[in-house]
Predict the structure of DUF2878 domain-containing protein.
Amino acid sequence: MKSMLANSRHLPKHQGFILYNALSFQAVWWSSVLWLNLSLLLTIPLLLFHFILLSSSGKRQYRQVDLRLMLKVAALGIGIDAVLSVLGLFEFAVFPWWLGCLWLHFGLSLNHSLAFMRPLPLILQALLGGIFGTLSYVAGAQFNAVTLPYGNVISAVVLFFVWLVLLPFLIQLANPYGFNRSTKARSFTVFGR
């Protein structure tokens, strides 16, 4: 652990920020699924810390990009989850404020720790979305964060198709500079510039 911390000091600032973003999202996911609404005591400060780090790393110009993307992704994700809840695919014991915060953090990851997906072929983005989006909800159900009344199989099939479309759409939404997939340009992250 000590050597990992020592090596992290030698990362360029943007790579350190990407590492923070990835670890932060994992902390948010796990705390949200395990502690539900109590997780907001951690997840809201982590949202604020994201923007503080962004400013202190000399990337102030990206605050508005991140803020707008975060709000768009959260609105879309919460809307989709609300529709799926109305259709009976999900049930929550209490109103899931934690899920809204999880969507906010997911929006922040698209231009940072998940930016590596941008140059991937569309079919691969779709498959990754279908698989990992579905696994996220099914795993949440295993930890009792959500109930899947139709069962794991039917819920997984529906979620697979939702995320098959959703992830590529969100990746495109997070592409403020019009990255061209066919050129395989190396500077596909806003911090690569």
User: Anything to note?
Assistant: Residues 77 and 178 are 22 Å apart (CA to CA). The longest helix spans residues 62-86. DSSP finds seven helices and no strands in the chain. Residues 1-12, 183-193 have pLDDT under 50 and may be disordered.
